[in-house]
Write a structure and sequence with these properties.
Elements lengths: L14 E2 L1 E6 L5 E6 L2 E5 L4 E6 L4 H9 L1 E6 L5 H7 L9 H5 L3 E2 L8 E2 L4 E13 L2 E13 L4 E2 L2 E2 L1 H4 L2 E5 L2 E4 L2 E4 L2
Antiparallel strand pairs: 1-13, 2-3, 2-6, 4-5, 5-10, 6-9, 7-8, 9-10, 11-12, 13-14, 14-15
The structure holds flavin mononucleotide.
């Protein structure tokens, strides 16, 4: 069957879902989920994220040049969804979702304590890409929960990464999960 072109990305799924934390010029924390993301270079360590230009996350990325990529597990899927709701600028989605910010070591934006891994990043490039901005960040520090890497591979049964299918549909581990 032929699919509407605008739906092409539904085929490229399920996608690893992260929560990006940033701060604005006043130091206020922002958090939002993203699934248009991928590693793009090993040396130097670079990753890319596509953000709608209207997102507070994008504004903060532009202003501060920094962000943290947080890897959530299934345990905080409901909270992840709350961070994706639309709140006015300056509202801390972590507080709204009942998540805890944890100081980063290199960048000013905090990470999320409940996430299984945190990647501190500095923006190295930002270009318009259709209706999104393609932001590339250099990873400057990575912290993980002690038990989630085994022989260099992510232990998915322990970390339970959240993969986005679309809308409220996710894949977690080997099963599909729809939020109410
Ligand atoms: C699972 C999930 C994945 C998402 N992925 C993206 C994405 O890759 N790019 C994007 O621009 N928005 C994405 N969004 C939408 C933003 O997270 C959402 O619009 C959020 O409110 C933006 O918050 P902000 O304005 O505080 O940055 C996603 C939402 C969800 C729930």
């Amino acid at each position: 069957m032929e699919l509407e072109l605008s739906q092409f990305y539904r085929v490229l799924a399920p996608r690893t879902t992260i929560i990006i934390t940033t701060i604005n010029q006043k130091g206020e924390i922002n958090a939002a989920p993203f699934s248009f993301t991928m590693p793009v270079s090993v040396n130097p360590p670079l990753l890319a994220v596509a953000s709608a230009p209207t997102h507070h996350t994008y504004q903060n990325l532009q202003e501060s040049g920094e962000f943290v990529v947080n890897l959530p597990g299934e345990e905080i899927l409901e909270q992840l969804w709350i961070t994706g709701e639309s709140f006015p600028e300056g509202v801390n989605e972590l507080e709204k979702a009942g998540l805890t910010n944890e100081d980063s070591l290199i960048v000013d934006a905090p990470g999320i304590k409940e996430c299984v891994a945190r990647l501190e990043c500095k923006v190295v490039s930002d270009r318009e890409c259709g209706d999104h901005q393609l932001v590339v960040g250099e990873v400057v520090r990575v912290d993980t929960r002690d038990d989630i890497l085994v022989e260099g591979l992510l232990h998915v049964e322990r970390s339970k990464p959240v993969l986005h299918l679309g809308g409220k549909d996710f894949v977690v581990g080997d099963h599909r999960k729809r939020l109410d």
